[in-house]
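Lecture notes, unit on protein representations.

Consider one protein chain, 251 amino acids long.
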Amino acid sequence: MVDLPSVRRLEAVGFRAWPASTVLYDGSWLIRLTAGHSSKRLNSINPLDPSDSRDIAIRLEKAARRFAEHDRPLTVRQTPLTPPQLIAYMDGEGWTGFSDSLVLERDLAQGELGEGMDHLPIKDLGRFVDARIQIGKEDPATKPALTEIITAIKPECGLFLFEDRDIGPTAVSLVVHDNDLAGIMQFSVAESVRRQGVGRALLDASLRWARLRGARKAWLQVEAANEAAIALYRKAGFVEVYRYLYRTPRV
């Protein structure tokens, strides 16, 4: 049984940890749009109340116009908070589902996090963004948008970067400390150093910093298809809280 209060809280901190440039409400449907970045999390409808199911077709049509203005496809992020009637409507209209993802959480008071604080956050945002783009093999043209998103994060952030003298950046992690919770964002390890303990070392360093800042729990989001990452997180003590996926109209 999914704990809806926990879902609501993690959804709220997730929105703060990865802020969209435009935020609109239609009832309890949160519409997030970001013209400068194509991230699904930044460009989706996020229903927040399972009972808010009035005028579904009309509201989706209205939202579609807003998405078109931002040159984005109409997308609903389906979570345990999505009204069953909306899910039934999308099913009936043949909407496509993709990017099935898990939200995981762990208690920072339990378990070991390695020894010492051998890696501290860096202050150079540009260097962090360059490393994230290089490791993720993303388009360098996304640098301004990614920089703007991270700059807009209001809670305290820790930018973690692992580097190798010969091959350059090897791993990055963005930790967002929000009251007693810490979100692990933008976690990425270079293919050339995977399965060598780099990911676990980065995760431990990120969690140690979060715990020292006062966080009691850590959370993260990971696609269900990323089996290697899920195995790493579960080994580190993370457990599943809920799942979500994105849905778009049939073309």
